[in-house]
Design goal:
Length: 149
Amino acid sequence: MEEKNLAIQNELSNEDIKNLIYTIKGKQVMLDSDVAMLYHYETKNLNKAVKRNIDRFPEEFCFQLTENEFQTLRFQFGTSKQNLEIKDELRGGRRYLPYVFTEQGIAMLASILKNDIAVKVSINIIKTFIEMRKFISLNGQVFERLTNR
């Protein structure tokens, strides 16, 4: 799978990272499973680290998707993505709705995850969030006109 190959690369392009950023509740976020893959962590271990440091992750940094948000996100993909599949306990796979991280959550993750990859990847992710925010800001009027048609 192409996204799994991203984890092998030393340098991620902004385009690779942009493809992992979604808009939910009007915020740009990344799925816990995608962040874990980029940081070379298992999703469950990343989420455990967050729970051990929960006071560093207010809702504007990290939140769990609702069932409706989760289904909407799956619809955006057009096809089910393995890390978005929630399966029952007997079959393995994801048992809980995914968590998502905002730009601030990504920065906070870099402070609690103690590996060189996490630090380097966090810098790339944050730069990409900033680039996307600037693009949206500069092109906001165009988007508004397209939406109002």
